[in-house]
Amino acid sequence: MTAPFSYVVKMAAATIETCHVACCANRTPNVVSWSRRGTIAFGTCNSVALYDPQERKVVALLSGHTNRVNAVQWVHREDYGPERHLVSAGSDHRLIVWEAQNETVLECKGHTGPVCAVDAIYMDNSQILVVSSASDSTVRLWLCTEAECLHTLSFGSGFMMDVSLARLPGSRVPILACGGDDSRVHLYVQSHGQLHKAMCLQGHEDWVRGVEWASIGGELLLASCSQDCLIRVWRLCAKSGTDARPEDDHTVIKMKEDVFEVKEKDVSSVFALSLETVLAGHENWVYGVHWQPPFYRGDELQQPLSLLSASMDKTMILWAPEEGSGVWVEQVRVGEVGGNTLGFYGCQMSVDGSMIVAHAFNGALHLWCKDQDRKGEWRPGVVISGHFNAVQDLSWDPEGEFILSVGADQTTRLFTPWRKHDSQQATWHEISRPQIHGYDMQCLATVGRFQFVSGADEKVLRVFQAPRNFVENFANISGTSKEQLLTSSDSANLPEGASTPALGLSNKAVFQGKILKTCEDEKQFNSVSDQYQESYFHPLNMTEPPPEDHLLQNTLWPEVQKLYGHGFEMFCLASDSARTVVASACKASKAEHASILLWSTSTWRQLQTLPYHTLTVTQMAFSPDAQHLLAVSRDRTWSLWRRHPTTPDNPAEPQFSLYAHTEKDTSIHSRIIWSCDWSPDGKYFVTSSRDKKVVFQHLGSLVPQKPAQTHDNCSSIRATGRKNTSR
Questions:
Q1: Helices (H), 342-444
Q2: Which of these, 454, 478, 339, 323, lies nearest to 399 by C-alpha position?
Q3: pLDDT digits 0-9 by tens, 648-701
Q4: Which of 238, 132, 153 is closest to 200 using CA atoms?
Q5: Residue 491 has what pLDDT?
Q6: CA distance 434 to 415
Q7: Residue 15 class from Cβ within 10 Å (0-12 exposed, 13-18 middle, 19+ buried)?
Q8: What pLDDT shows up at residue 105?
Q9: What confidence score (pLDDT) does residue 708 get?
């Protein structure tokens, strides 16, 4: 499940302003929709994000679902004006209709399984007709003014992967297309509030993943895509009285037409459907198709005959018929080359056709923009990014210029503000992905200007340091002095970048000589193994945030140290304000594994073991003056450790001893304590627990007693803090 990144906020007096929301699309096919206003709506975790690609920021988050959002669709108006309504569906079995002006919410309940696809059109009197498909093997038709389910189609043990609504040509009768796991496209027409089957389209040889209607020149075109790697385009048109029953003419070669009849207010109309073309170009499952929306050029409405498709082969293709022959051909192909990620789940296109976007299996949005200077050329665009699974921890840079975060998506990401030359407002973007791991990430602590320690679901701590290429690009994007950053980072000894071996978890440093050697070896292969170099790093000169493929391959940080000592998976980390000591703790069900380990950041040697807790230490925090270490645990207690003054005998290595603690029978908290922190002046610390209590404690109110017992040179002193000081 994806999780939006925590807000970066500015505080002034009594106001809080949201500066940035870092998030990505959920890993479902129908979760992105582009409006005529230019706003991209996509599901992220349990919310719907409204993203402005021009401003490059999330303008709103719509929260209402209680589980993952699987499908999002703008309700397009008949007059092709800006949309006023948005429909979303999720794994909570519900549909929600959002209204733009007053943000009213209308819920539709009835499905007994997660809803995977949704579409909607306006009916008479501005009523919204919504169709939804769910994993309960049903397709439901809703009239959303009263949240009423008009009709339910049951498909037994089958599933409909996508649905699309339109009106029959020259009629007000809705027609529904459903693509299913039976390799067929099912067509239904509405009559008297009920859905009646019109026909079934065969031709695909695997699951039909996407369907979409487009109205062009008084006719309807239906695009369907499948796991057979093919796209089929069908043409539906109204038949006149003379054409409805044509006589067989064996001298004319034409596509076979399937005819069906529709009755509307005692008037019968005949419609014919034929196969227009079959598009073959993708090399893997095709998950999504999308027609370019109609738009006004002057006072004239134009509907471009342009179809966009997205596939698991990591490409998007723009299809259009040739002007002379009318044969559908590939106009543009964009995507990624190489890497170890899966492909695209879906695609969307802006109204003017100048931008296209795809969302990938790892949640990332991939944006391409038409190059105005080079006709027919497309270039990657800057777009929002974020974790596609739960964010577990984050840490600010000591100078406050960027944020590092780790998540259960097994990545560490770096976000910083970027200000374009022609813009006064800065927008936050991901500019580096220092660590792409094989285990879920759990904790993080910065220990220098460009250095951090991270822990994952493994027993090892890993230390990373920024390479030279990142420092240079960070200076370009943030506007900081490059010379100043390189001077403070000891640039002479910095590697150029980092890469990960094919079967390894450690980022290996890549130096300038290695890059030159790799470039020379690419010109001539001496053996088969030379064709598959372990170093995939290529130095970049970036003036804007990089696209997803560069983030995956060229922004890694080299691993400089591994720290061993814990017996189970890492759980939390903390570093002091002087960046000289790092404290770490792992998962523990016994006291012998619940100890806190202290590490020196200068030698990366283990300094001390601090035993007290009996279960997992959930969070630690050093006081602002670095003289105290606070820890909270699953055992419902907290412990406070005090730093010994330095002596001439041992001036460099700090030592801590237990200064105060609580026990289960004296603790105010009655459940697991999840978090802790200090006030800026260091006089108070705060703990929060699952018992719904937040407790403030004054440091001066703690009255230490004489040592009761000793643990590895660490005194155990019981606190007799007065409860009347807690708030």
A1: none
A2: 478
A3: 666 667 889 999 999 888 889 999 999 999 999 999 999 999 999 999 999 988
A4: 153
A5: 61
A6: 11
A7: exposed
A8: 81
A9: 45
Please give the Cα distance from 213 to 221 (Å, whole number).
6
Got the DSSP string for 27-45?
SSTT-EEE-TTSPEEEEET
H/E stretch holding 682: none
pTM of the predicted model, to two decimals?
Answer: 0.87
Distance CA 232, CA 150 (A): 30
- Quickly count: other Cβ atoms within 10 Å of residue 332's Cβ: 17
Residue whose C-alpha is closest to residue 344's, from 383, 289, 307: 289
For residue 421, give the amino acid letter: H
DSSP output for 497-523: EEE--TT-SSPEEE-HHHHHHHHHHHH
**How many angstroms separate the CA atoms of 413 and 407, rounded?**
9
Place of tokens 């990620």: 341
What are the DSSP calls for 184-206, one per residue? -EEEEEEETTEEEEEEEE---SS
Contact 674, 695 (CB under 8 A): no
Instruction: Indicate the residue type of 323.
Output: E
CB atoms within 10 A of CB 723: 10
The dihedral formed by the CA atoms of 328, 292, 178 and 322, expressed in degrees to the nearest 10: -10
Beta-bridge mates of residue 177: 164, 187
Query: Which residues have a Cβ under 8 Å from the Cβ of 700 and sit 6 or more positions away?
Result: 683
DSSP character for 126? G
What pLDDT, on a 0 to 100 scale, did the predictor assign at position 513? Answer: 62
Distance between CA atoms of 169 and 289, rounded to whole angstroms? 21
Q: Which of 548, 541, 543, 555 is nearest to 383 (CA)?
A: 548
Residues in the chain, pLDDT under 70: 1-14, 102, 241-255, 338-340, 422-423, 488-492, 502-503, 513-535, 647-652, 703, 705-727
Structural tokens at position 129: 């007709």
CA dist 293 to 36, 303, 321, 439, 715, Å? 8, 7, 16, 42, 72
Q: In whole angstroms, give the CA distance from residue 469 to residue 17.
A: 33
Q: Which residues of 209-245 are buried (b: 16+ CB within 10 A; e: fewer)?
A: bbbbbbeeeeebbbbbbbbbbbbbbbbbbbbeeeeee
CA distance 142 to 133: 11
